[in-house]
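Workshop exercise sheet. Pairs work together: one partner reads the sequence aloud, the other fills in the structure field after running the prediction. Swap roles for the next sheet.
Pair: D.N. / O.F.
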Amino acid sequence: MKIIVTSIFVEDQDKALSFYSETLGFVKKHDVPAGEYRWITLVSPDHKEGTELLLEPNEHPAAKEYQQKLFTDGIPVTMFGVEDIHKEYERLVEKGVKFTMKPTEMDNITIAVFDDTCGNLIQLIQQ
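Structure field:
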């Protein structure tokens, strides 16, 4: 068994697709109609057959509440690994990404947290 898709709730699928592809650099894998919304997944450009990130509409009241409470409490919804967190931090800051935590060393890892502009905090980690 392996994880093939993981999802995050987003307030606006088009805005999220733009941010995750153009700003973060993920590659769109699927974008197909799914009723009122779309099935939009992205993958790492280095692992195009790897785990897909689904941009899930947060239209269900429970999803909205869950997303808002995590954001308000400063809890990231997911974690992305990077090779050089300081380089990635600088790249994203230059693109206008707002960080709530600059790269911070914790034991043998370094983490940073940013706002994805779609209702979520995302954690970066360098192991």
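Discussion prompt: The first helix runs from residue 13 to 23. What would you look at next?
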